[in-house]
Amino acid sequence: MGQQRAMNRRHVVKAALGAGGLLVAGGATWVATLPPAPGAPNPPPIPESESTAALAALRPPKRQRPLIAIIGLNEGTEVTDYLMPYGILSRAGIADVALLGMTAGPVSLYPALKVAPKQTVAAFDAQHPDGADYVIVPAMMRDDDPAVLGWIKTQSDKGAIVIGVCVGALVVANAGLLDGKRATTHWYSVKALRQRHPAIHYVPDRRIVTDRGVATTTGISASMPMALTLIEAIAGRDKADSVARGLGLFDWNTRHDSKAFRFNRPFALTAIQNRLSFWGHERLGMAIAPGVDEVSLALVADAWSRTYRSRAITFAGSADAVPTRNGIGLFPDTVVDGWPAQTLLPAVTDAPPALALDQTLRAIETRYGARTANFVAMQLEYPR
Known about the structure:
Layout: H1 9-26, H2 29-32, H3 48-57, E1 67-72, E2 77-78, H4 79-92, E3 96-101, E4 107-110, E5 114-116, E6 119-120, H5 121-127, E7 134-137, H6 146-157, E8 161-164, H7 168-174, E9 182-183, H8 190-196, E10 201-202, E11 208-211, E12 214-217, H9 223-235, H10 237-247, H11 265-276, E13 282-287, H12 294-304, E14 310-316, E15 322-323, E16 329-330, E17 334-335, H13 353-368, H14 370-379
Parallel strand pairs: 1-3, 1-7, 2-4, 3-6, 7-8, 8-12, 9-10, 13-14, 14-17
Antiparallel strand pairs: 4-5, 5-16, 11-12, 15-16
Helix pairs in contact: 1-11, 4-9, 4-12, 9-10, 11-14, 12-13, 13-14
């Protein structure tokens, strides 16, 4: 099956470069065949009975205070898929949350950041032989790693509810947990999911789909409503709304307009143009300090590193891991005391994470134009 690149930078760059060749050879014929940008999203309402059933299916299966494990492949795991559920669920305080790596050492996140997880899966298994209540599976550089698939399947067999975030759905499917079930995934990988696993029933227009012990989500930004839905299932709507307000969300649900996210003409052209504008590529510095919020940091670094014009580079005055708000270690990409002002990103502050993402998209629009900001939002599957 090979490595699943899952909307990471190299995967789409390859497509963009191929498209660039087609433009030169074919006079932009290929791009002209793509659909235009969609209109304003208008997702259908979700019946109350469906929402009630989904919450019931996500109730804690074992413990009164649940144990949540978030698994990461050390060689490459999507940054927001990995850090956002951890940050949100940790700040909620309604469960014990374990951020895991498959092996000892840092987890390299894409398209930016490197962190030290709390535990290895081996240490987790030794401490919790009866398994987790929930296992959250992000998108990974490989969707067919045998150790990852085996561990997820074992946790499911022990009664854990498995949640595939974004293209983590392909990992969950390859573990054999989605056949015959309803599911969703990142818009870019729906075709791959359906081709590789034809027994799966794809469900559009939902950011989260739950079916018999397994849940899946749409693209990257869906990990925020996913975490809030899990909080609601564990501790009730009032608690979920309280956490949502702290995130900067005052209206949230799992409605989604799948038709608004697809490989269209503006997306393809922006990928090609930004990738080929190699003289304008920038390394943008992000200073990291103790106590930084994992959710805001992940969203900001992810967004700036998906423009095809820039990459977020973390820096600090020491090579030592910097502790984040909820106690994981963040390793700087480079050790320097400062960064040139013209390519220095604003510090990640205590502003609510949803606000941080909106501010970042506006800053991207100011720096590179509206098409690039929309291109980033499309990759994040964020209804901007």
